[in-house]
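Late entry, written up from scratch paper. The run itself happened at the end of the previous shift, but nothing got recorded in the book at the time, so transcribing now.
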Amino acid sequence: MTLMELKEQIVLGEDSRHQFKWDVANTDSLAAEMATFANCKGGTIFLGMADVQEKGTGYFCAKKVRDGERALRRGNIIQFN
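Output as recorded:
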């Protein structure tokens, strides 16, 4: 995933194939999300990012882009195809 692709997904926000997870302390929840993606059409989990988009407005904050850039650098993006 490129930085441009990441920014495009941030603007779109979460959906059934893209999930933002700020805190992964709840490992059962993360495991359930991973199992769902692995058993269905696939998807992407962005670790270290919160879903702060206001639905329907296209608004997103600069912090979310910075969090996404950090997640991309650290390899904190899990893709299931």
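DSSP finds three helices and three strands in the chain.
(Scratch paper discarded after transcription.)
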